[in-house]
Request: fold
Amino acid sequence: MKMLTKWRLLSLFTMIALILSGCGQPYLSALRPAGEVAQTQYDLMVLSTAIMVGVIAVVSVIFIYVLMKFRRKSEDEIPKQVEGSHKLEIIWTVIPILLLLILAVPTVASTFNLANVSPMEKKNKDGKTDVLVVNVRANLYWWEFEYPNEEIITSQDLVVPTDEKVYFNLKASDVKHSFWIPSAGGKMDTNTDNVNKFWLEFDSYGADAAGGLFYGKCAELCGPSHALMDFKVKALPRDEFDQWVADMQAVKEPVQAETATAQEGQEIFNNSCIGCHAVTPANTTNEAARIGPNLTNFGERSRIAGVLDHSEEDLKKWIKDPEAYKPGNLMTDKYADLSEEELDALTEYLMGLKVQK
Reply:
């Protein structure tokens, strides 16, 4: 009965594993690649899995064959004694070497290809690159994205064009993090003492399947809110990306509040929040204004703090008690004393921070 119970549990876990292996959304699954890097990594996973399954199948067949053919048939029978076979030894030495080469050659070739960031090192006559470069800075527990050629900065939402390579400089401002967009490829560490570089590509077909929005995550345990350190990736056609860049570059001054309530909220923001949050996308050397995420286009984002729905109700909850949603964040307890009227005003102002009509 105990053996039967164990087999039932094994069967149950096997069924659950098979069911879960089919889970995954196009915006978050490494098994549904949406770019050249992700496709290359997926193909390598398929190749290695095929080799492993093939080896297991062959060994299992040999095992069953030997078990049946050379089993002891009587008490007096003594099996034929075989002390060695040069032919077998050569076979089981050569085959693993061949399998290793089959796996190693494409893996090494892909590694060198994916590590080739030479285009981002070449400067044109204007001192800029001819390719799109994004400087990623990881913070506890949010992400900043700087576009040096375009001279703009944004946070939490990475905006990229489809069907072309995007090059990244990765760095952390506090502790080690790891930059990962499962559907597009990666992942790579962000360190405080050096800059890591790599590139990704987002194909238009994968972007359409994901609704133009992918999820990115921190893949390195970095603190109590590590699991909540998400960001979003908006993959746009090149013309729409250029329009987004132009709209961001056009913002020279903070977006002005339109209603009386929003104006009151802007005043509260200027008195309490602007010391940590910038509301213009231009590059800034004022590190104090980069303690918190850049909020220039906060009203256009798809999530609040990377994890909450983008709604006024959830924004109020976040401002009032951010510790409840992201333990250990730097904003904790700073705005707990706001009245309901002040909270409403600040919320209306923040939701109105939009650069695209």
Summary: Helices lie at 2-21, 36-69, 86-114, 204-209, 238-249, 260-272, 312-320, 340-351. The first strand starts at residue 132 and ends at 139. The chain has two domains: 28-57+87-120+128-243, 260-351. The two ends are 69 Å apart (CA to CA).
